[in-house]
Amino acid sequence: MKLWQSKEQNDVDMDKIDVKRLPNHIAIIMDGNGRWAKERNLPRSMGHKAGAEALRKIVSECSNLGIKYLSVYVFSTENWIRPKEEVSFLMDLLVEYLVKELDELHRENVVINYIGDITKLPEKCQKNLKNSKNKTKDNTGLHLNLCINYGGRSEIVKSFKEIYAEIKLGNISIDDVDENMISDHLYTSGMPDPDIVIRPSGEYRLSNFLIWQCAYSEFWFSNIFWPDFRIEHLRRAILDYQKRDRRFGGV
Ligand code: FPP
User: Fold this and answer.
1) 35 in ligand 1 pocket by Cβ < 6 Å?
2) For 165-213, how does the pLDDT look when each residue is reduced to its tens digit (9 = 90+)?
3) What is the distance in A from the centroid of ligand 1 to the CA of 175?
4) How far are the Cα atoms of 36, 82, 180 from residue 30, in angstroms, in the given order?
5) Whole-angstrom distance, CA of residue 23 vs CA of residue 29
6) Given this model, what pLDDT does residue 11 score?
7) Is 95 exposed, middle or buried (0-12, 13-18, 19+ CB in 10 A)?
8) pLDDT at 8 over 70
9) Quick check: CB of 93 below 6 Å from ligand 1?
10) Averaged pLDDT, 79-93
């Protein structure tokens, strides 16, 4: 089955979206950059560049719609096994993106945040991420979570280690450990869980993305590659989300 490939299906009238029932948190696995480039006989790096441009439009649309949180998978803990040149291109692209877009994102009232172990990133990435976070920290609009050197399993390990340290210090007992405590030690502490996870490119996996937080998320898949992902696809995903019946284990 082809999902959301025809123009006719993609057009979503804004007034069909119920602005009072928007998802609070949208998570996106930006997949298909390499295949998008391959289809055009371009190097994979051009797919990532086009992917960064697609992201820019989606950030603005989320901001305009009044979405509170957008988490995007930029680089996973597993992505280090890619060719050295591709990893280094992605790191440079991140810096370029932040340098180029910071002022405009700040004007759009976006709070830039990062999620993942950034200590393993090149110095210039760390510097730009921290600077972007600091500059936009008092904004009140969309929270953009750039998930970089992020992995859901390692995030859960981090949470367990922090809790264990507290137990060892005698600050808490093992009986105090509950789901809320584990959540409070994740990178997303204090944020709502994603309501919807969007994955384009015809893959149907979570790929270690926000695995704890997505326990009750809705999933939306599409066959198009991320660099072709546009505002109409986002609107379609939101509209479909609004048709879902979320029971959270109830009836
Ligand atoms: C997955 O596609 C994509 C990535 C691993 C990188 C995601 C990065 C971007 C969208 C652009 C960078 C964003 C910023 C903020 C700089 P893939 O390469 O695995 O595609 P494939 O499965 O078709 O090979």
Assistant:
1) yes
2) 999 999 999 999 999 999 999 999 999 999 999 999 999 999 999 999 9
3) 41
4) 12, 16, 29
5) 16
6) 64
7) middle
8) no
9) yes
10) 98
Q: Per the structure block, which two tokens stand in for 191?
A: 């944020």
Cite the DSSP H helix spans in the chain.
7-10, 33-39, 44-65, 84-107, 123-136, 152-168, 179-184, 231-243
Q: Is the CB of 32 under 6 A from ligand 1?
A: yes
CB-CB contact of 108 with 60 (8 Å)? yes
Q: How many CA atoms lie within 13 A of 246 on its CB side?
A: 15
Average pLDDT over residues 5-33: 82
Tell me how far apart the alpha carbons of residues 54 and 59 are, in angstroms, rounded to a whole number: 9
Q: Report pLDDT digits (tens) over 220-229.
A: 999 999 999 9
Find the 31 Cα to ligand 1 centroid distance in Å: 6
Is residue 155 predicted with pLDDT exceeding 80? yes
- How far apart (Å, rounded) are the C-alpha atoms in residues 156 and 96? 30
CA of 67 to the centre of ligand 1 (A): 23
* Mean pLDDT score of the chain: 95
Q: For ligand 1, what atom is nearest to the CA of residue 94?
A: 16
The response to whether residue 31 sits with its C-beta less than 6 Å from ligand 1 reads yes
Pick the residue whose CA is nearest to atom 3 on ligand 1: 31
Q: Give the closest residue (by CA) to ligand 1 atom 12.
A: 52
Residue 238 corresponds to which amino acid?
A: I
Edge-to-edge strands of the sheet including 143-150?
Answer: 111-115, 143-150, 69-76, 25-29, 196-199, 218-221
Give 243 Cα–ligand 1 centroid separation in angstroms. 29
The predicted model scores a pTM of 0.94
